[in-house]
Amino acid sequence: MAPVFEKVWEAAGPVRGCESPHWDAEAQCLYFVDLVGCKVVKYHPASKRTTSASFGKAMVNFAIPVAGRGDAFVAGRHRSVVLFEWDGVSSQPRLVQTLDEVQADAEGKDLHLNDGKADYRGRLWSGTMCGLDPGLSGGVLFNMDEDGKARVRRTGVTMSNGLDFTPDGRTAFHVDSFKRVVNVLDVDPDTGDVLDYRPLLSFDAVRVPGLPDRMPPGLEGPKWTVPDGVALDAEGKLWVAVFNGGMLVRVDPDTGAVMSTLAVPAKQVTSLAFGGADLDELYVTSGRFFMADADLAKHPDSGAVFRVTGLGVKGRPGRPVRL
Is the pTM of this model over 0.70? Predict the structure, then answer.
């Protein structure tokens, strides 16, 4: 049976986008962020109910539950990692504290946090991006232990994006979008130190069916075709969302070889997370940013969240952050 896509959520407005899906296996629900609406959204599949909490005019780039703390979450807001409380019903969260600010003194008003995820020890990983200029590389990759302090692990990043980790904590995957590269990292699981950082898959070096090999000189950042969010399945294979590519790519994490592709009914695919009671469903987020009329006509559901069934592959649940 071919995979089936079901649209489960969609924002209003001509510009829209969602990111950073997180499956909470204990609560059997999906959390994700509405970037343009500055909201954290909760989707409960059993009831098909959606609720959201607004952060006003402050964009939220990720929101992840905190282990053992009920309604507590960590979130990325501008350059800060914050702790907030939300009961999953109220329209507004309660901001508890700012844990740390990343690159506080860095120049550039467009520099801010992007995607984030916890590893299997509950250590938060995230990074920054320098706006939408592909030529800027002032971002970083960092992680945060239970002390709530951010530690920079990599500099020279253009747009920090998707992250995921092997269960033993020794290997991580990190996307640097405007370099069009998915990187693999050797990590010390006890300290969070990055021991090695190297390319796994470069969209410039490896031919991916249906994707351009190179970006034309002078092309604006929002029009680039780049890797975005990532997720490992239960077989250890890496799934990569392709922004402006309208697809997911399944990659061999040992060789970087493209194993298969899956078309998505949205051009700007932003991220993905496995979910469902048996972790055999895939939730895919997407964007609708500066799209041409022809692209909108071809992909009218761009900006929605989809549930995909019938993949024949299981995944792993999201991990909470430990503080």
Answer: yes
